[in-house]
Amino acid sequence: MLPRPHPRPPGGSGFALVADRDVQRSTKPLLEAVSRHLEAQALTCGPMTVLLSALQHSRYFGARTAARYRRLASSASLVAVLGEGMAVHPTERVRGALLEAGDPLLEEWVVAVVNPHVTAALVAREVHGPGGRADDAPEGTGRGQGGRSAGPDAERVFEYVITYERELVLEVAARLLTRVTHGPDGDPRSMASAVVGPVTDTTVAADTGGPDYRRAFTEAPVGMALVAPEGTVVRANRELELLLGRPAERLVGHDLPELARSDDAAALRATCRSAARAGRTALEVRFTRPDGSVVPTTVALAPLGGAADEEAHLVLHVEDAGPRKALEAELSHRALHDPLTGLANRTLFRDRLAHALARARRAGDDTSVLFLDLDGFKAVNDEHGHHVGDAVLVQTAHRLQENLRPGDTAARWGGDEFTVLCEGVGAPAGAAVAARLVAALAQPLRVEGHVLVPGCSVGLASASELDDPLGEDELLRRADAAMYASKSARRP
User: Which among 165, 260, 420, 474 could bridge 264 via Cys, Cβ 3.0 to 4.6 Å?
Assistant: First the structure.
């Protein structure tokens, strides 16, 4: 059965498609690491893979990136890169697309991988405004057109979403493909019809009895099942047996939704019933193995064509989502936590502070911020080495956490500076917290045979002191100023 023509969606923002998902914030280095991970996924999937990237500007398609993309293009069916000033062929075997002025992709960073087994997309946009690099860049760093920072900059901040939802990834990929206007034969429709059409076709060939089909089904590297509309398993391959921890005789003839967790079973059953009419769809399902362990999966369903008077069976593609979810959790944690101490970083602290101030305003409560700076920390680094200094920072972080309430947030602000957020706490109670932390940090630290007593200076500010109860920047500035005043007063 030939794939049905698939209309290309109009060009537009990739981020608009994912803006309702769980949006995170990150600096540029983390996004580069995620992009390389997605590229590596593309490299392992062979000639049926499409890799599409929007890199804002051709200057970001440097020599190293070009070398990686040439290697990817040697095995993939299509590798395309988009950007301002991008050439039609920016490097060997790689397609290019020029983004014109006003194109929303000029403000975005998108990497999409599409093949029959894996779909993944990173969609990001640079943050503008308070807390964003584009508007707060120091003088001399330079900015590109449209407010984008000029050149690679580790301090650039992005909002981003990583998604493995097949239909959503296909929509993102299609928006990029509309900019890659010409295929290899010069036909402006060939690229979208050759890539988007077959990948997003909602039907499967009806001939299920041929040897090629049976072999592809049996030897597929992911879980596959043929399922009746009500959810009964008609056929299952070896990978699905291994994934669900059940031999074929405990799958075939049994109700697949019954193997899912109770809160996922109803959704899977309803999707099976509607897929014959709605076409291809996908959802996340947690299955329970016989030993009681739970395996998260992504289940893609497509109707299998049959006679007009027959109710269509379904082909299910069941992929282990555990590694992907672990990676997402790790990347999210890295984006929001200090890698040395494990405390919240500035991004997470500011987010929690903004929410705390909003809650305090609604409830008529107060909120306090403490700004701490270790005394004599430079001398520790100079006399004993940075590895000892790092150990002091880690022990300081532990003591902060041990002396705070469960709902309070401690963050490493940078260097030897820390911040603490105390919700529902005014200036008097905040002063008591500050005194407790000063006493805790005044206790000797033992590091590699050295006994160190760095001590600290603390500044306190409360939201009730502000004219604007939502002024997080002013609250931080006052706490910082109070800390420096305390440090100056203690100097001889």
Answer: 260
